[in-house]
UniProtKB/TrEMBL annotation:
<comment type="function">
    <text>Transforms N(2)-succinylglutamate into succinate and glutamate.</text>
</comment>
<dbReference type="GO" id="GO:0019545">
    <property type="term" value="P:L-arginine catabolic process to succinate"/>
</dbReference>
<comment type="pathway">
    <text>Amino-acid degradation; L-arginine degradation via AST pathway; L-glutamate and succinate from L-arginine: step 5/5.</text>
</comment>
<feature type="active site">
    <location>
        <position position="225"/>
    </location>
</feature>
<keyword id="KW-0378">Hydrolase</keyword>
<feature type="domain" description="Succinylglutamate desuccinylase/Aspartoacylase catalytic">
    <location>
        <begin position="57"/>
        <end position="248"/>
    </location>
</feature>
<dbReference type="InterPro" id="IPR007036">
    <property type="entry name" value="Aste_AspA_hybrid_dom"/>
</dbReference>
<feature type="binding site">
    <location>
        <position position="65"/>
    </location>
    <ligand>
        <name>Zn(2+)</name>
    </ligand>
</feature>
<dbReference type="InterPro" id="IPR016681">
    <property type="entry name" value="SuccinylGlu_desuccinylase"/>
</dbReference>
<keyword id="KW-0479">Metal-binding</keyword>
<feature type="binding site">
    <location>
        <position position="160"/>
    </location>
    <ligand>
        <name>Zn(2+)</name>
    </ligand>
</feature>
<comment type="similarity">
    <text>Belongs to the AspA/AstE family. Succinylglutamate desuccinylase subfamily.</text>
</comment>
<dbReference type="InterPro" id="IPR050178">
    <property type="entry name" value="AspA/AstE_fam"/>
</dbReference>
<feature type="binding site">
    <location>
        <position position="68"/>
    </location>
    <ligand>
        <name>Zn(2+)</name>
    </ligand>
</feature>
<dbReference type="InterPro" id="IPR055438">
    <property type="entry name" value="AstE_AspA_cat"/>
</dbReference>
<dbReference type="GO" id="GO:0009017">
    <property type="term" value="F:succinylglutamate desuccinylase activity"/>
</dbReference>
<feature type="domain" description="AstE/AspA barrel-sandwich hybrid">
    <location>
        <begin position="265"/>
        <end position="337"/>
    </location>
</feature>
Length: 344
């Protein structure tokens, strides 16, 4: 066990990570007994000294897209508060800065969108982003393995921001649960306590980080969208105080058990995923359309060669419209209101 670094005089873990100066290796202990270990570049674990008394195991990830900085700043504050002994740790917590190279360059990704690279079989020809996604999967499997044996709650919040504006600023995507399970209203009510105003229930499997931990680590996992992507230091427009308070409380072992989803929390189901199948793909709304913009029935939303996407659903809305994605990737989601929590 190493002795604790002099954290007061050191740059934050985020700054060290961005500077390429993280020291991997042996765990060390802070003055209050908290055990800390840098697991890989941008991946750090905190454990209480009496690890058996912990209430839950929690992964907080951000920066899977390198231009989405508000959550990265939030995570930096949480890590710094732990280092300073300002939080009474009652959980095992793994923090992840997802795509460190993309964070350095301030871009969504370097070569490939990392949030499309989970749940796949690794290949010798994998590039750096694909390898990093595989490494992160292994970190989460290892981290959650202990909670699975001991049946402690396992939570993963993968924090993002959206490319465009949103009529609803803070929302979450709830990955499709495995067969035999349903979407849990308590989880949605917890998200509401964290300031989340709408939750989208996924209707298909996915290749995202949150889908991975939901499906392969049996964690309650969510992609959380917290306002709009802005450069570091320019995130004052979005108020993340509820989310920050909620995550700090989880770190202190307080897992709320709300029974009712508040009236004002909107729940939607993904009705259709629009996949760009060729370069002929055309989106017939402005590519900068706000998320949650209503789509009138009968409207021709998109075309791809002979394929047409016409709105048949009542009260449909658009999420993540983006005609510029690579062929084979999602160019938008059509969502509809839902009050059912069953899987289908
Ligand atoms: O605003 C956009 O178009 C994308 C914002 C973003 O990065 N969203 C995530 C959602 C992941 C999920 O569906 O769970 C993504 O596209 O990876
Ligand atoms: Zn993102």
């Amino acid at each position: 066990m190493r002795s604790a670094p002099d954290t007061m005089s050191q740059p934050s873990f985020l700054q060290q990570t961005l500077d390429g100066k993280t020291t991997l290796g042996l765990p060390f202990t802070l003055g209050n007994g908290v055990r800390v270990q840098v697991m890989d570049e941008g991946v750090i674990r905190f454990e209480p000294n009496d690890s058996d008394s912990r209430k839950l195991d929690l992964v907080i990830s951000c920066g899977v897209h390198g231009n989405e900085t508000a959550p990265v700043e939030l995570v930096d504050r949480l890590i710094s508060a732990l280092y300073a002994g300002e939080l009474r740790l009652k959980a095992r917590v793994l923090f992840v800065y997802g795509n460190v190279d993309a964070l350095r360059s301030g871009t969504r990704f370097i070569k490939q969108d990392m949030n499309r690279l989970f749940c796949r079989i690794p290949d010798v020809s994998d590039d750096l982003e694909a390898r990093r996604a595989t490494m992160l999967e292994m970190q989460l499997m290892r981290f959650f393995a202990r909670a699975m044996q001991e049946d402690k709650p396992r939570l993963h919040y993968d924090l993002h921001t959206a490319i465009h504006g949103s009529l609803i600023e803070k929302f979450a995507i709830y990955p499709l649960p495995p067969m035999g399970k349903q979407f849990e209203p308590t989880e949605i009510a917890r998200l509401a306590e964290a300031g989340i105003e709408a939750v989208l229930l996924q209707s298909t499997t996915s290749t995202t980080f949150s889908f991975f931990s939901s499906r392969h680590c049996d964690a309650s996992a969510f992609t959380v969208e917290l306002g709009r992507a802005m450069p570091f230091g320019q995130n004052q427009a979005v108020d993340l105080s509820d989310m920050e308070r909620y995550l700090a409380a989880l770190i202190e072992g307080e897992l709320p058990q709300p029974e009712l989803i508040p009236e004002h929390t909107q729940v939607f189901r993904v009705a259709r995923e629009i996949v760009k199948e060729s370069d002929a793909f055309r989106l017939h709304i402005d590519a900068k359309t706000d998320n949650f913009m209503p789509l009138p029935q009968g409207m021709l939303l998109a075309e791809d060669g002979g394929k047409r996407w016409t709105i048949t659903e009542e009260n449909a809305r658009i999420i993540f419209p983006n005609p510029d994605v690579a062929v084979g990737q999602r160019a938008g989601l059509i969502i509809v209101p839902s009050r059912s929590f069953s899987r289908t």
